[in-house]
Amino acid sequence: MPGQVALGSYTFVPETKENLDWAELVTLDFAKYATADGKQELAQFLISALREKGFFYVKNFNISQEDVNRQFSIGREFYELPLEEKIKYVPDGLDQGQFNGYIPAGRRVLDTKTGIRDRVEIYNIPKFNGDFKHNHPQLIQGNIQEIERFARLLHSEVLDPLHTLLAISLELPEDYFRNIHKYEVKSEDHLRYMKYTKFTPEENTALGNSWVRGHTDLGSFTLLFRQPIAALQIRDPIHNEWKWVKPQDATLTVNACDAISFLTGGYVKSTVHRVVAPPKDQQHVDRLGLLYFSRPHNDLVLHTVAESPVLQRQGFTQNVFEKISNPVPTVEAWTFAKQKWQRAKGAPDEDDAFRTAQILPGFREQIYV
């Protein structure tokens, strides 16, 4: 195993001083998770947050800030590599929905008048459970043991508790969702380093300040580590208003995704969010993201969890596939169908036909404004 690569420290840029319209989000304090009463309280906070906002914060999740900063340092150093090195790790089959490895910027046309393309780079690292080939540049390989430890901690210290709390809130056995999100079983979970290279003020104006249009994620939960450049906005599911998501110290920002929505028959909505140009006092810097995407087992069929008493009482017993008798996909089929759409090369963001494409029979994307 190669030796660990020296990374240096990581310094976050200052937060914006602009007075933005921040979303009011619930914070789940995992310090309460150790007791039965605490779990019950957190479960009710969770389901309320999912139903009313879709996004929430988690704190006291037993991963040190030092470990988080190390991952930001790895991401920073990865994006300092020459393009000719990074491009070696583009996945075969990227146009067909493959996504582990390096995804270069410029695949999407953001503005047809000016020809401006996206400046988003992605590096995805899959599970370390033996199902995936790990072929990485020396920088990543030299820190692979630390990266694996970090990814496994996210699963055990954050996702397992979230899945437990979701089960409690739906009056299911506590291990219900944990049993379909086991780390050792094949699923398309991945850790991501993500870089948004800045645009000029003139380019931002041409883009209407839109970097990534409103969308939903395809899995169960997305974990987003705090970084202080304000750019993430969520659409309130009740009032349909866009709000900024404020970086909170020592927290994770979490959102619900498509698979959870399918499994709960729409009781939990997949959260609509977008990325916009940062406020003017932060537009001069690039934005680095550290994320983890959780997904159920590949072979799970995305039927509504019919045995939940809550879903039965509330009448959420069929998802969008089941309501009109379409074949219900497995997680694997769903994942790669949506990834293929997301990774379509050259697709203009302004093309409404693309933005409302049918992903699978029974499910069409939507325009979120």
Q: What labels describe this entry?
A:
Jelly Rolls; 369 residues; four-stranded antiparallel sheet; alpha+beta
Describe the protein's topology.
Layout: E1 27-29, H1 36-52, E2 55-59, H2 65-79, H3 83-86, E3 101-103, E4 109-111, E5 116-117, E6 120-126, H4 138-141, H5 144-169, E7 190-196, H6 201-206, E8 210-215, E9 221-225, E10 232-235, E11 242-244, E12 251-256, H7 258-263, E13 273-276, E14 287-293, H8 309-314, H9 320-323, H10 331-342, H11 352-355, E15 358-360, E16 363-364
Parallel strand pairs: 1-2
Antiparallel strand pairs: 2-12, 3-6, 4-5, 6-7, 7-14, 8-13, 9-12, 9-14, 10-11, 10-13, 15-16
Protein name: Clavaminate synthase-like protein
Organism: Russula earlei
Brief description of this entry?
The chain has 369 residues and is α+β, with helices and mostly antiparallel strands. It is built from eleven helices and 16 strands. It has a single domain (27-364), classed as Jelly Rolls (Sandwich), CATH 2.60.120.
